[in-house]
Amino acid sequence: MSENAAGRSGRPGRGRRPAAEVRAAVLAAAGDLLLRDGLRALTFDRVAKEAGVSRTTLHRWWPSPGALAAEAYFARSRPVLDFPDTGDLRADLITQLRAFVRWLKDEGAERPVAELVGAAQTDPDVARAWSENYALPRRELARERLRVAQRQGRLRADADLDIVVDQLWGACYHRLLVLGTPFDASLVPRLVDHALHGAAPR
Amino acid sequence: MSENAAGRSGRPGRGRRPAAEVRAAVLAAAGDLLLRDGLRALTFDRVAKEAGVSRTTLHRWWPSPGALAAEAYFARSRPVLDFPDTGDLRADLITQLRAFVRWLKDEGAERPVAELVGAAQTDPDVARAWSENYALPRRELARERLRVAQRQGRLRADADLDIVVDQLWGACYHRLLVLGTPFDASLVPRLVDHALHGAAPR
Amino acid sequence: MSENAAGRSGRPGRGRRPAAEVRAAVLAAAGDLLLRDGLRALTFDRVAKEAGVSRTTLHRWWPSPGALAAEAYFARSRPVLDFPDTGDLRADLITQLRAFVRWLKDEGAERPVAELVGAAQTDPDVARAWSENYALPRRELARERLRVAQRQGRLRADADLDIVVDQLWGACYHRLLVLGTPFDASLVPRLVDHALHGAAPR
Amino acid sequence: MSENAAGRSGRPGRGRRPAAEVRAAVLAAAGDLLLRDGLRALTFDRVAKEAGVSRTTLHRWWPSPGALAAEAYFARSRPVLDFPDTGDLRADLITQLRAFVRWLKDEGAERPVAELVGAAQTDPDVARAWSENYALPRRELARERLRVAQRQGRLRADADLDIVVDQLWGACYHRLLVLGTPFDASLVPRLVDHALHGAAPR
DNA sequence: ATGTAAGCGAGACGGTACGTCGTGTCTTGCT
DNA sequence: AGCAAGACACGACGTACCGTCTCGCTTACAT
């Protein structure tokens, strides 16, 4: 996926190259690095070398290695964002959460996601990129689906939809980030049931 | 703090100093730095300078600046661990979660906690320190309280207590780490009610 | 010294400075240190500080503090190399050796030279710098002068010119390095006479 | 030759040990290190570890690692010091110089001697140890032999015996220290002849 | 089509931090 | 009393990044 500088159509390294080409090479190299060696290894130095690109260029386009990492990750893993609405809220939630959990587990997204959220705690650029490109859109999507259900009477009128979202996705993140043991896909239905019906006896 | 730190004042900085004295100075300086300037500023270099301690010593006792930060933080925020058991599960959960949320908000723990959990995603030493000294004990405490409630029939027999914990604390962490907007203490009762009774109509 | 050092005065220390300017500052500071405080004091740390230069830069250009010391010394004491040929071998040798001895004594070269040769025994970089820039060229010059004399019949045909060189300059170095008592200029004629006519009765 | 701390007669490492035993272990370990890995490797740290001795002890008895190295070397290579007097000055000089050259070459003394003389240029303790234990006694011995020869008329009355010594031994040291190419034993007779009869035509 | 300027590669420099090693000093505990 | 063990301050080394800057070149765009 990432192409070595040498193989770059035989051109001498100097002179101006189309911005698109440069950006593509950078994102490819950065994505490779992130998946292969983790966020710590994703330094401007290394990306520049692997992408056959000048470090100057990286500084021009990205404010920090973390920001580059975030963008590289989004460019790679356009995740499935559309939220199904089959009318069956429980089924839809299970579908969506299971897709989320499986995306983490099966596509190797666990480490990059954890590392990026981790970096966001310290690097405002990463935080912004993460929020704008990922967290907020997903949250809004879920909220919208829940709002529809609430209007249809499938959720209590006084239910706090934000809290529901926090409980569902927060439970997954909690294990990933705080406990270090990712959420298992097989538990998703129980998670949804707990969110819908609670843990107390009826 | 140390039993023979007394006669030491006039001496030059060379030679051996009691370990306890040094450790205390380091943890104090590290804690200050963490709270004042954040985790990024907590480097061995700076801690050494502020604590009047040799950098060598830091390397001897802590594997990474992050690990030192974690320990410094624990040394400072020991408390808040005992889980009440008044017999009223809902009230106890609210008490405990509210204490957690307030600890984050009112004692300035928000940033350090977020940064430490963030660093744990990348630095295994921080991860270990965090798990052993914080996450796991707290989790166990909560689980134990829920187990009692379950035995008393106040929670469904088939409730998954781990999931309940993930939903309650995970919701708080979710806002803090993923959304960047800390959980508000006034929402705690609703959070607990959602966990106990769910969002679906009865 | 550099062609565009002019407009640079007001700028902050960051960014690139002309290599020549930096090198000059480094060599000046290193030479000062070497002469003033000796080779032990010539550390990268101190040179960097005194030259207003980054330590990184020193590592980039010199493999070891010793190597830097050697170069700094050569940059300062270029001269004294041309070997006279007046036709009078004895006089020429005396001239040259006396210049050597006086250079050591009068220009404060004794200590640096001794220290550099000393360091060369342990630091291959110093050894190489010393050989290439100093010892070998000088030796070759002397040998050449002796070769001419030998061709003119002023030295025995079977004389070993290398040995003659070793005896003349070696005697000086012997006192300096092994005995610690520099050779006195007034003894130079006797030294040359001994080399030419030996110590045995005719 | 050097004995590991573990094998040291089964004693626990603590408590007082006879000084002689400690000194012997130290000198053995230091000598090994010097010959095996060179002077740079002979640090107090390493000697202490290899000799099963406390670093404190080394500081008590030796002012610097160099001084220890020097003493360790002398303890090991009690060199043949007695100067023969067969009546034949030329033969005696050849014998003695050849022994010197061969000692350097055949017994691996080249590197340690060069390194010690090198260190002496910078470390006054090494310089003193070297002078007192080696250079001066040897010089005196040679001078004495030459003085006898001079009294017997085998050297000119006006010959400067110090210069003769400087020329003979200085030639060897010159190659070793300044040129880096040790003197060859087969050249010794020519060296002596040059010293006795000079390089000029009779 | 041609000149100009925008943008790139290369790479040096200042700076901060890390991790390591060595020295000299000091304390403690054992023998 | 003397030694081993070992902690501490200090200073230096070597490395890795980051952010900044200069230079030379090439292509893209505007004229």
From TrEMBL, chains A, B, C, D:
The keyword Nucleus does not apply. Residues 43-62 bind DNA. Pfam families: TetR_C_11, TetR_N. The keyword rRNA-binding does not apply. Keywords: DNA-binding, Transcription, Transcription regulation. Residues 20-80 form the HTH tetR-type domain. InterPro entries: Homeodomain-like_sf (IPR009057), HTH-type_TetR-like_transc_reg (IPR050109), HTH_TetR (IPR001647), Tet_transcr_reg_TetR-rel_C_sf (IPR036271), TetR_C (IPR011075). This is TetR/AcrR family transcriptional regulator C-terminal ligand-binding domain-containing protein. It comes from Streptomyces chilikensis.
